[in-house]
Amino acid sequence: MSAHDEQQIQSANSSGRTPVVFVHGLWLLPSSWDRWTVHFEQAGYAPVSLSWPDDPETVEEANSHPEVFAGKTVGQVADHLESLIGRLQRKPVVIGHSFGGLLTQILAGRGLATASVAIDPAPFRGVLPLPVSALRSSAPVLSNPANRHRAVPLTFEQFRYAFANAVSEEEAKELFETFAVPAPGAPVFQAATANFNPWTEAKVDTDNPDRGPLLIISGEKDHTVPWAIANASYKRQLHNPGITEITEITGRGHALTIDSGWQEVAETALTFVRRFT
Hints:
- The protein is of the alpha/beta class.
- It is 40% helix and 13% strand.
- The chain has helices spanning 3-15, 34-42, 59-64, 74-85, 99-109, 132-142, 156-162, 169-179, 186-192, 227-237, 262-274, and strands spanning 19-23, 46-50, 93-97, 116-119, 151-152, 183-184, 214-219, 244-249.
- Strands 2-1-3-4-7-8 form a 6-stranded parallel sheet, with helices on both faces. A two-stranded antiparallel sheet has the order 5-6.
- It starts with a helix and ends with a helix.
């Protein structure tokens, strides 16, 4: 466990407040949630932005040592996050973005969340749509089978298309310089092949009655996880007896958690969470 995770878990446990666990996705670090953690702390929660295994502390360190990301799989990260959540004294809310949204649903499906919010979540087994924009967004990884075992950075042009298509060129460059880091290729391959692999780690227990309430948030202009994927995930989650909702945020792309409109998304998540905590 990193010093970052240990400090946040100890702080949450000593606060007596409901923890809210934030899970980042590919090409980002826990620091991408910094403004969200302040927002939720001010709302009376104990925020915990958890690391994936071996996450560097800073974007600069991550870009200097991309090799630390290589080889991480969905199952490995999910088990790592479960072990960290197990150190919390109160059952948390879990909020995740992109592959963090997939991990959020995996964790909720294991009965680990009081409530959960999956923002533009990566697809899991049983989610069938494959829009052209999603294929183009994942092409920097999927175009080379060797990337399964590598850490893959995005160029600015690739980041612009996959994350920052709904903001200005100037803001897109700022987001790229501030937040973008290399990412393991394995999870992209796992998501892409999930429907052909009965043993895939990219699967969610959508039937567990202990899943808790779930909200899926979709950005209207998201290229990476467009509405067709988010809505298909929602329909799969309707198998669960718990409350399952979906909402679309107008005019937003995949960078909706980190761009200048992040607070609208955070408020949407917070409003949902408040209903159940």
